[in-house]
Every structure is written in structure tokens, then in C-alpha cells.
Amino acid sequence: MDWLLPYYDWIKAGHIISLIAWMAGLFYLPRLFVYHVERAKDGSELDQTFQVMERKLLKLIMNPAMIASWLFGLLLISMGGLDFAAGWGWVKLLSVFAMTGFHGWLSARLKAFVAGTNEFSGRAYRLANEVPTLLMVLIVVAVVVRPF
pTM of this prediction? Predict the structure, then answer.
């Protein structure tokens, strides 16, 4: 992968840009779910409006941003950008897997809203809204401070 080295800074910039877009969606979608569950009755016009907003956020912003984050991240790993001999590299990678799992959980929650089978409260979605923040802090500290 040495032929990619001249593009390292561009790949890193792409990784950061796509990660910011992905994180924005991970922060916003659970907040939309809070308002959806607390304000909209199943089948109402407001319910349909929330479903459109949530679907577009997931499909048009979050999914492409997640895929781009992974692709740029894998390119960076192939260029030696993640130290698997140190603990911080593993912490970052496991945190990214957790973030991807959370993304999948949000996608399943959207499907439940569409099916009219949502079983979570606004409070549950408020708590879930903290997950990406905790993962982001863990990743940034692991990569920048490298305490382990």
C-alpha cells in the first residue's frame, strides 16, 4: 500500500470529515426518536413526518458517512495508522465496532417505528443518546492521549 502514502493526508481528512458526518447523525437520530415517541401518535401525520426525517437522516447521511469512515479508516490501517501492539489501537477499533453496532440498533429502532412496534420510551432514547458521546470520548482519548 506504499502507493497510497502520498495521499495519506487526504485519506486522513476524508476519515475525519466522514466521521464528523456520521457522529452528527448518531447524535441527532436518537433525539428525533425522543420527540417522535413523545409527540406523535402511531399513524398520525406527525408520525409520518418523523419517519421521513429519520429515514432520510439514516439513509442519506448516516449510512454513507459510516461506510466512508470505515473505508478511509481501513485505508489508514493498511498504511500503518493504527498500532495494534499498543492498547490504544485496540480500544479505538473495539469502540468503532461498538459505534457500528449502535448504528445498527438505531436502524432497527427506525424499522420498529415504521412497523408501529416501538417499545422504547423517550427516556430510553435520551439515555441511548449518550452512547455515541461516550464512544467518541473514548476514541479521541485513545488516539490523541494514548494512555495505554
Answer: 0.94
